[in-house]
Task: inverse folding
C-alpha cells in the first residue's frame, strides 16, 4: 500500500481550463506531492462559492486524507448548506515564507506557496469515514492530539456536517529566491533581500479550570518544543 501511495503522490494532475496557471507559469506545480505538502503545512483554507449571484469567501479549518480534502461544521452553516446543493467551489491555501524587498517599490514581492482546488463537495454519510475525517481535522491542527482527547459521541457526530472535496482539479504556485530588480537598479545604494517569515508556537497557556497535576501532553510538548515538567 505504501508503494501505491508513493506512486500516487508522484503523479501530476492534468491542468484544466480553471486550474492551469497562466500568470508566471514557471512558478506552477501540478505534482500531487507538492500540493499535498502545502495543504498539510497550512492550517486555514478559504472556501469560495457563489449563491444567488453573491460571492462568498469563508475561512475555515480543514483536514486531508489521501486525495480528499475535508471541511466540517454545523448543519446551520450557510456555507455547508450551500455546498451540499452541488455548487462549484474554489478552495485556497496560502503559506507566506518571506517578504521580498527590492531596490524599487515596483519589484517588492513575497515568497509563498499556495494551492487552489476546484470541484464540488459531497456529504460524508458513512460513520467510519466521518470519524476518519474528524480525526484528520484534529491531527492536522496538532499531530497525536486525537489519541489524547475524548472521541466525538453520537450526538456530536449527528450534529456535525462533514463534506469531502476530491483533490483532482488543483494546482500549486510557489515563489522562492531574492528580489528581481531592473538591471540598472542593481547599482543603487539601497538594501535589498528577503525577510523570512514563519509561524512559531509560543508557550502553551493552561485552561483556568485545568486540574492540578496535569502536565503538558506529548502532542503539545512536541509542537512547542517544551520540556516536560513534573
Result:
Amino acid at each position: 500500500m505504501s508503494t501505491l501511495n508513493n506512486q500516487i503522490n508522484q503523479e501530476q494532475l492534468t491542468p484544466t481550463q480553471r486550474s492551469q496557471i497562466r500568470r508566471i507559469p514557471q512558478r506552477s506545480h501540478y505534482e500531487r506531492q507538492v500540493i499535498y505538502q502545502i495543504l498539510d503545512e497550512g492550517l486555514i483554507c478559504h472556501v469560495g462559492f457563489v449563491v444567488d449571484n453573491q460571492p462568498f469567501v469563508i475561512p475555515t479549518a480543514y483536514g486531508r486524507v489521501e486525495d480528499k480534502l475535508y471541511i466540517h461544521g454545523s448543519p446551520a452553516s450557510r456555507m455547508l448548506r450551500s455546498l451540499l446543493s452541488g455548487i462549484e467551489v474554489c478552495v485556497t491555501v496560502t503559506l507566506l515564507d518571506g517578504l521580498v524587498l527590492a531596490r524599487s517599490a515596483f519589484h517588492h514581492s513575497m515568497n509563498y506557496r499556495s494551492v487552489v482546488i476546484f470541484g464540488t463537495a459531497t456529504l460524508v454519510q458513512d460513520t467510519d469515514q466521518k470519524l476518519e475525517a474528524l480525526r484528520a481535522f484534529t491531527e492536522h491542527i496538532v499531530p497525536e492530539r486525537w489519541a489524547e482527547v475524548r472521541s466525538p459521541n453520537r450526538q456530536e457526530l449527528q450534529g456535525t456536517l462533514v463534506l469531502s472535496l476530491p483533490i483532482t482539479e488543483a494546482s500549486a504556485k510557489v515563489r522562492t529566491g531574492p528580489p528581481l530588480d531592473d538591471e540598472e537598479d542593481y547599482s543603487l545604494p539601497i538594501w535589498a533581500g528577503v525577510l523570512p517569515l514563519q509561524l512559531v508556537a509560543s508557550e502553551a497557556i493552561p485552561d483556568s479550570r485545568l486540574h492540578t497535576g496535569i502536565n503538558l501532553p506529548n502532542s503539545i510538548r512536541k509542537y512547542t518544543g517544551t520540556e516536560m515538567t513534573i
